[in-house]
From TrEMBL:
Residues 7-169 form the Glycosyltransferase 2-like domain. PANTHER family: PROPHAGE BACTOPRENOL GLUCOSYL TRANSFERASE HOMOLOG (PTHR48090:SF1), UNDECAPRENYL-PHOSPHATE 4-DEOXY-4-FORMAMIDO-L-ARABINOSE TRANSFERASE-RELATED (PTHR48090). The keyword Phosphoprotein does not apply. One of its GO terms (molecular function) is glycosyltransferase activity. Gene3D superfamilies: Spore Coat Polysaccharide Biosynthesis Protein SpsA, Chain A. This is Glycosyltransferase family 2 protein. Its main location: membrane.
Amino acid sequence: MQNVRYSVVIPVYNEEEVIRETYWRLKSVMDQTGESYELLFVNDGSRDQTAELIVAMGEKDPSVTLIQFSRNFGHQVAITAGMDYARGDAVIVIDADLQDPPELMLGMIAKWREGYDVVYAKRSERKGETWFKRQTASAFYRILKRMTEIDIPLDTGDFRLLDRKVCDEMKLLPEKNRYVRGLVSWVGFRQTAVEYVRDERFAGESKYPLKKMLKLSMDGMTSFSSKPLKAAGIAGVLISAAGFVYLLVVLIEKWFTRVTVPGWSSLIALQIIFSGCILMFLGVIGEYLGRIYDEVKQRPLYIVSSVYTKKSEDQPALR
Ligand code: UDP
Ligand code: MG
């Protein structure tokens, strides 16, 4: 099997408006390296013309490969599939919407040549995203950093370069609810950053609605910290200590004073607060339990319905 120097992994989900432009930008940047490369598009169950457009590009360009999922499995899974199929000595993951400027890949490659194994792109600024998205993302990265022992760099997405050996280690991690950027940190090796300004989307809308953002952040938290579970214990101890002190106060009042307490509303308030706490922590346990269940089921991470490339006999076997 012929080897390639660079694999560019591009997860795509309903990106018909941008995919052609993305292809040309990626191609012109990768041609500048003067070395061999492949463009691995992972179609995460798009319902528009994305796949057809990629196949049309692939007709004329053997560096294009399309990995077709049988349905939408999510961005993180699409990236994982791309890494599984990548053959290059270095693997670069990039979004399809040109928010990650392809030109930065050259900078990443330069760092890789210096001997770094992971080069991640750190966002110094984010353009064209809502105030809400920027604030919640920034808060999430900071909270996660405090909650975990693993050093996950702040303000980085999945735009990064991985050396072959890092990619091979990533393939050995079987977990289902994946937070890829955390896993890359977990794997270790020599890592460094290049900074960039995150552009606006070239066209179309974000494919990350609030629901998917919440899922990603919960995966990040639960995969890399068990502190939320411990918080329940700590809260329990504090609340019962307070309750005990209050009991003493009540007893002293009963024995030594004549204060009578009407106290209905305070009882109801406390009742609601504590039931709320209990439900909340049951929810936390549920989040972990659900993920444990996902692991136990041992289902494959994704299902590939077809792989398209001009030279399909060169493709590695399905996982
Ligand atoms: N994406 C995907 N599957 C999904 C959602 C998104 O493969 O279920 C891809 C999408 O096509 C894009 C990348 O993941 O290439 C990042 O998505 P998007 O740009 O919509 O996210 P945002 O930049 O708004 O966070
Ligand atoms: Mg985007």
